[in-house]
Amino acid sequence: MNQTAKNKAGKPKQKQKGFISGSSAPEQKISMRVVEESGKPIQATFNRTKTSPFGLFNHDAAERLQRSGPNEVAHDKAPHALVQLALSFKNPFVIVLLILASISYILDVHLAEPDERSWKGVIILLTMVTISSLLRFFQEYRSNKAAERLKSMVRTTAIVLRRSNDAANPQRQEIPMRELVVGDIVSLQAGDMIPADIRLFASRDLFISQAVLTGEALPIEKYDTLGAVAQKSADANPAADNQADLLDLSDICFMGTNVVSGTATAVVVATGANTYFGSLAKNVVSHKRIETSFDRGVSSVSWLLIRFMLVMVPIVFMINGVTKGDWMSALTFALAVAVGLTPEMLPMIVSANLAKGAMAMARRKVVVKRLNSVQNFGAMDVLCTDKTGTLTQDKIILERHLDISGNKDESILQLAWLNSFHQSGQKNLMDIAIVSHADQHGAAAKLLQYSKIDEMPFDFVRRRLSVIVEDQGGAQLMVSKGAVEEMLAVCSHTQQGEAVQVLDAKARTALLEKAREYNEEGYRVLIVATRQIDPAHAKAQYKTEDEAQLVVRGFLTFFDPPKDSAAPAISALQEYGVAVKVLTGDNAIVTLKVCRDVGLDPGTPLVGQEIEAMSEQQLNEAVKYTTVFAKLTPLQKSRVVKALQANGHTVGFLGDGINDAPALRDADVGISVDSGADIAKETADIILLEKSLMVLEEGVVKGRETFGNILKYLNMTASSNFGNVFSVLVASAWLPWEPMLAVHLLIQNLIYDISQMMLPWDKMDEDFLKKPRKWDAGNIRRFMIWIGPTSSVFDITTYILMWTVFGAGAMYAADGGSAGQNIMNSGWFIEGLVSQTLVVHMLRTRKIPFIQSTAALPVLLSTAIAIGIGCYLPFSPLAASIGFVALDKSYFYWLIATMVGYMILAQTVKTIYIRRYGQWF
């Protein structure tokens, strides 16, 4: 539980999680509306909201929705297209290019002599900025639209009472939560999200989790006041005190919180932005979201490259200035080198990959709510999952109904039917199985002479549910069913036939042993118990404290067969480096049996009571060797997830119930299903339209493929750019002029970057997909230093070739003019561009390119076109204007030989690198 801090008045100030503490003036105004309803006679609330306990007429609800707008709060949504366009230019690499363009303008246009002014550098830089930013905008705009379409597939609904125009009797309707209006009468049960700010007027054992507003993990009880509390005076108004008091109002539930247990009926008093949640959300969306591991990874790599640029560019400037004596020309060339080191396409590549990954997952029935979770999905190396519905078919069958000795007893089915049929909360699969089984047995299995009086709904602490019924003579009977140990804790006797005996230690041990035997056979076991209510103590409403002195009547055994797909899916996940751990509230023995059936080695289980007694350090150690965690509470599931994260794992959690919400929130990747509880779907990052581990395995592969293509661009671009700079340093120290003009470097970089636009459509080698992948800036730095200079070897041979074979040196010796420089520039431009583009195929895989691994067709075409353009430029009509000359045709024989040598050397260095460091990307 979170610690509280004392404010100046000495009262505890509630800590919030995910929202901004304190109350602004608008929030206090909204809070006043809620407070004005609290404690008043319920009829006063009905009058103000112009409704009744029977709900609104449909036409009235439609009019109110038209006036007040949808029941939605401010949330993270894509900004206007023009804002997105402006934000596309907000990137460190784009800012670097704009600064370089400004300097180029000052040097080449503003300060230059009229006859020497040149806009080429400025135009090329601005072209690169425009292409990069527009492509990023286009990709992010498409991905945001796609994300909205995907999220619209996941609906959250509310149950309301509505009346048709000519009908007096209200009908229960399930409507989208956004269509709720003030005055609607809503029904709530365990698992529901509170759809608006509401005033309770009927409730039973209602416990609400307000963790989304307060950060407090433990739920609090809410109940209707039925007008028993007098209207609060202004000076006692909780809104004027602090928000903790406001959230403690017993008859008010707030939008965004969720029902842990119990049932209720309430009237909507505020919707959308007028709710307390809505007022907070306005502040939240105006604040920057906490960075994810993906964001931090991109940022760390970006600044690594910028720091590298800040070191290398001054070195190039100084060497050129000292050796050539022309400091202005040296500065221009250094700026071009800075451009060459800038991976300006990184934002576009990232956006395109994530969007492509999300859409590919959608085709595999995986809805991505947050795009960055695509990479986290691929990085996941531990998947925590519940047992029911994931490893099993989620189709419970009531197999047997037995007395305490294990004999079939029809009366146990009758009692179970009374409990399951009359309970009004969220019916779980076992309740459905009991009612279905009784239907098959006919009227004999149903004690129709009983009518319901009250119930104590199921919760995850008591782990039992009790119903009080009354026969036609007025005699009341409490019927309870629940988990074995929790039921025995409130039982005092056993009954077989008409014989009732005290539940002593021996009898308790015998019952536990019997339940254990059923568990080992693979059955889930519940105990059914009853208590005849003494007429003198009969009443209309009961509390959980009344669950005492119960008599054990017998057992119910259920069977949930394993899914046929579970075993191959677990095998596939393990093959891809994802360890599967089972976190369940169910019995350890049943869970072990199911795990063995699906091929998962369960080892020694860890149960909730053991976890409760452990320190954080002890739990961090225990989770390393544990596969099955059984009989867990929601908070214990969350503790296990955090312990795994503390050990350096990227943890995914698959859950669909209200008890899974804390773990879904704390996991690196929260995964739920479309049929899950509202709070689970709202908390999750990813929604599965099919509850299957096989779907997850496909999602993991797609996530890794997406991340792999991002890493390809980073590693290839960083190493190629470093190689070019290294070559420039050598040339600057040796050649009498720059080996390539600044405009040549800019054109080369532009062509290369455009060729990389197809990388998101590339394939990944199967061996890359087998292991989880994370950001590693250190490996990118090492990759640059190892692979970059490989190309420099052949850049230097090209300098020598152009200086000797093609006469650049002789021309310089003859007249010192530009003819030799033009030949040198043209030859190195082609070789540099061809090698830089060809290296894409060398470095995209750890295998032998073209033989063992071939790039996807879009990448083959884009690189081929880039090479073609680069080879054509010195022969084009533009050649003279940009300082190129047509080369002798024999140059291309030398180029082919150079490229063959380069490919052999690159493959050799790659092999040594992999052997030394055990990884490629």
Automatic annotation (TrEMBL):
Q: Give the residue ranges for region: Disordered.
A: 1-30
Q: What topology in the membrane does the UniProt record assign? A: Multi-pass membrane protein
The places in or outside the cell where this protein is found are: Cell inner membrane
Q: Name one GO molecular function term.
A: ATP hydrolysis activity
Tell me the ranges covered by the Cation-transporting P-type ATPase N-terminal domain, including all copies: 36-109
- The answer, when asked if Kinase is one of the entry's keywords, is no
Query: Which reactions appear under catalytic activity for this entry?
Result: Mg(2+)(out) + ATP + H2O = Mg(2+)(in) + ADP + phosphate + H(+)
Entries under SMART domains matching the protein? Cation_ATPase_N
Note the InterPro entries from the entry. Answer: ATPase_P-typ_cation-transptr_C, ATPase_P-typ_cation-transptr_N, ATPase_P-typ_cyto_dom_N, ATPase_P-typ_P_site, ATPase_P-typ_TM_dom_sf, ATPase_P-typ_transduc_dom_A_sf, ATPase_P-type_domA, HAD-like_sf
Q: What is its EC number?
A: 7.2.2.14
Q: Which SUPFAM superfamilies match?
A: Calcium ATPase, transduction domain A, Calcium ATPase, transmembrane domain M, HAD-like, Metal cation-transporting ATPase, ATP-binding domain N
Its keywords, alphabetically, are: ATP-binding, Cell inner membrane, Cell membrane, Magnesium, Membrane, Nucleotide-binding, Phosphoprotein, Translocase, Transmembrane, Transmembrane helix
* Any single GO CC term annotated in Swiss-Prot or TrEMBL for this entry: plasma membrane
Q: Which residues cross the membrane?
A: 93-112, 118-138, 298-319, 331-355, 783-806, 826-843, 855-875, 891-913
Organism domain of life: Bacteria
Query: Is Transmembrane one of the keywords?
Result: yes
List, alphabetically, the NCBIfam families matched.
ATPase-IIIB_Mg, ATPase_P-type, PRK15122.1
Q: Which family does it belong to?
A: Belongs to the cation transport ATPase (P-type) (TC 3.A.3) family. Type IIIB subfamily.
Q: Which PANTHER family match?
A: CALCIUM-TRANSPORTING ATPASE
What does the protein in this record do? Answer: Mediates magnesium influx to the cytosol.
What this protein is called in its record is: Magnesium-transporting ATPase, P-type 1
- What is the organism lineage in this UniProt record? Bacteria, Pseudomonadati, Pseudomonadota, Betaproteobacteria, Burkholderiales
